[in-house]
Amino acid sequence: MKKKYFALILGFCLMITNSFVFSEAIDINETTMDEIVNRAMVNNNLPGLEVILVQDGEVIFESDIMRNQAMTLEQSVIQTGSISKVFTSYLLLQWMDRKNIGVVDPIEPYLPLNIKDKTSLDGLTFANVLTHTTGITTLKADSAVSESPITMYKPSFGVEAHEFFKSYKLKPVIEKDEFILLSNVNSLLAGVLIESISGLTYEKAMSDLLETTFGMDLSASMVAGETISNAQIIQNYSVSGGRHEPLGAFRTLYLPSDDFLTTADEISKFMTFMTGDRVSDEMRDAFFTRQVGSFSGRSYGMPKTQYGKYEVFIQDGGIPGSNSRLIFVPERNLSLFISYNSNQLGAREEITKAIFEEILPGYDSVTVHETYEAEALERFVGVFSPVNASMESIEKLTKIIHQVRVVENDQMLLIDKMEYAPVSETVFYNAKNNVYAEFKTDESGKLKALIIGNNVYTRASFFRSIYMEIGLLVFSAFFNLLAWIVLLTKWSNMRVNRIHDTPRVVLMLHTLVMTALLSFILLVSARYSLWDVIYGGSKGLAAIKVLGYVNALLIIPALMMFNRAKTDFRWSGAMNFVFRIQLILSVMLTIWLWLYNFI
User: Fold this and answer.
1) For residues 184 and 261, what is the distance between their CA atoms, to the nearest angstrom?
2) Which of 325, 426, 309, 291 is closest to 372 using CA atoms?
3) Which pLDDT tens digit goes with each residue over 159-182?
4) Which of 42, 50, 79 is nearest to 66 (CA)?
5) What is the DSSP string of 186-240?
6) Is the pLDDT of residue 14 over 50?
């Protein structure tokens, strides 16, 4: 009798447990899903697209289409970029569990000597590293080399990390604990901690995890640096104006943060593991429980955001010409993977929403907030720059490019021209995109930061606003044009004392260099690509750097020749004014290039 009651109780407990892990099965219409995939291919002009859906540990839909080369879920190797961070987090958590290390324990005892003496790391915990709350900015620029990631010799991560941390300052741009800054540097620290705790190389520890835990044998072999004979890297493309331009190979220097090599079939094994019954409760909680953040946030494994009524954990990644997205929806025990070989960043969001609209009816219902009468909205008005930009690389330029402007508009705020209604004294809500904007203040009420999703912004000074930057470039171009007009119309009268050619030649050379420099700045701005900043792959950026140095070197000779030339009676006041202002603007332009790490 007792055994009977025990069996009933056990069965009831198992039923309750499974109700938390497994959810109502999604009814997949494969014909409709195929139409969604094909429509996404056409609308975004994608050369190739792979989509996988997993629920309750089972693949419920998969599709792969490639126009220009053979593509298979099993053997076509994709470079998933920052999805590497998800696996690095899992690996660190696994070794912390094995060594009885808590998330609130300090990282300092486990750091090698060349990193341990960095005072900016004092007091940081494993939780700071895992949740990206160290306050340390990301580092992306020049973090890759132009070579194949699977056929060339690669130094170990330990060697690359030693060189990186030897020169990188690790200076926080914002206080720890309070703000999430998604940063490659945190993942590099995680990789170093893995090597220290496990006593293994990162490559060995990761390949063991992939092979023994997830069954991702091919991915494990590629991480270990083994030669793969039956796999092929998918060709990546830059898509513009309907044309597909093949891109060269890229190999990321820092494995824990970037460029996880895998196949769609292999990534589905990870998805089935995380949504199945083999993952431990502790690891499930670590990955699918928000640890920090007000309305967005992050778990120990992935960034968290809101898709309509669903809380989702999402990691995007990519390299030039390739983009991927991995999503988990814990409430439905669902996982989605998207990968395509194009530089179109917006396509993954369009595909995600199209799929969710099909399989999660009513997913995009918005939250209804009661009307809140906020006061003194003018204190939030201004221009805000993103915090998370490396101060030591060209990526600092994104502090201008990705500025947002906040304007008061009839009891609402317009943030980048999108309406945000107040839901509390410092929190505003955009119903169209279901996004919150929160203004953080200190104890005295002074504005500290603006948080939109997982992005942190601080108020930009007037002299660092995009309007001042554009003004500098416009005035430089205008007076450079006037200098050309003077040179072309007054050339014969610009000899000093009628015999000296050097002043006018030097001034012409300086004007020529400034023209080329401003032209390349305009060209790069018009064709700006985030990948150019991250991988330094733009010839335009390289040209700006060279011309910036040449322009800086010519300033003093040009100034000397101008001071000499203006004593000639044939140099009118207008001519003197044009070249004087041109030289002042040239100095300001040089300072601007230096401030944003061009030179």
Assistant:
1) 17
2) 426
3) 888 888 888 888 888 888 878 888
4) 50
5) HHHHHHHHHHHHHSS-HHHHHHHHIIIII--HHHHHHHTT---SS-EEPPPEEEE
6) no
